[in-house]
Structure formats: C-alpha cells, structure tokens
C-alpha cells in the first residue's frame, strides 16, 4: 500500500486521534497493533500532525506551515502580476 492509499483509508479525525494517543504516552507499537496501522505510517502522521509550540504559547503543525507557504507563494505571484499590470498601465 502506498501513502496515497493511506490518506484515503484513514480520515483526518482518525489520524489525529492516533497522534493524540501517541502524545498521551501510548507507544507506537501498541497503536499499530491495536488499530491495524503500520508503525511507519503512524510515525509519518506524528511528523505531519504533531504541533510545534511557539514562544507566544500558540502552536502549529508542519501541515499548517506548508499551507502557509503555499498561500504565500500564491500571494507573491499575484503581486508580480499586479506589478506587471501597473507597469503596462503606467506606459499608457
């Protein structure tokens, strides 16, 4: 099974529950045998969904970070388009 199938087989709430159980002290080996998910897959979910704490007390996940990066790239592209459009209209 590839990682693409894993995303379809287990919904986000289930993956989050597994990560929370891990964070509360349940060993990955136990989670794997109890829920029928490979240890490798659980470690991938932990890496993807484990929150990172910030100095101001807030937290975010690596998935949140990737979403922010994607949004930033989209906004940068929009800004470039607007700059080019302004240059075109300034010449007229």
Automatic annotation (TrEMBL):
InterPro entries: Homeodomain-like_sf, Transposase_8. Pfam families: HTH_Tnp_1. One of its GO terms (biological process) is DNA transposition. One of its GO terms (molecular function) is transposase activity. This is Transposase. It comes from Sporolactobacillus inulinus CASD.
């Amino acid at each position: 099974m590839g990682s693409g199938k894993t995303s379809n087989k287990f919904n986000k709430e289930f993956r989050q529950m597994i990560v929370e159980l891990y964070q509360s002290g349940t060993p990955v080996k136990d989670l794997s045998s109890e829920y029928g998910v490979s240890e490798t897959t659980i470690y991938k979910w932990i890496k993807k969904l484990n929150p990172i704490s910030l100095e101001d007390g807030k937290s975010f996940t690596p998935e949140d970070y990737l979403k922010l990066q994607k949004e930033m790239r989209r906004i940068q592209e929009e800004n470039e388009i607007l700059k080019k459009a302004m240059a075109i209209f300034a010449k007229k």
